[in-house]
Specification:
- This protein is an alpha+beta fold.
- It folds into two domains: 1-39; 41-92, IHF-like DNA-binding proteins (HU Protein, Chain A).
- It is built from three helices and five strands, in the order ααβββββα.
- The chain has helices at residues 3-13, 19-38, 84-90; strands at residues 43-45, 49-56, 59-62, 69-72, 75-82.
- It has a three-stranded antiparallel beta sheet with strand order 1-2-5. Strands 3-4 form a two-stranded antiparallel sheet.
- Helix 1 crosses helix 2 (19-38).
- The longest helix is centred in the first third of the chain and has 20 residues, at 19-38.
- The chain is elongated, with a radius of gyration of 19 Å.
- The two termini are 20 Å apart.
- It comes from Candidatus Enterousia excrementavium.
- GO terms for molecular function: DNA binding; structural constituent of chromatin.
- This is Integration host factor subunit beta.
- Belongs to the bacterial histone-like protein family.
- Keywords: DNA condensation, DNA-binding.
Amino acid sequence: MKRSDIVRSIQVQFKHMRASDAAAILDTVANQMIESVADGHRIEVRGFGTFQPRARATKIGYNPCTGQPMHLDASTTILFKPSRELTKKMNE
């Protein structure tokens, strides 16, 4: 599903809404989620799941072509944990 599909779905559900308004709402929600996770906050969307930043420690990795060890810097990634409802729906 693409962004335009989500905008169209919002527009179908709320018939009075223009596509540009639906897109603006979607952009606002996405930007707020991005800012919150980037600031280190956990986001919970009930019925969907949680997003939270997860720190990764510095470690030694290996170059897949040469097999030589290489230093991998510490980084932060995003952990997504699906809700029970989403997991149940996926396994139906």
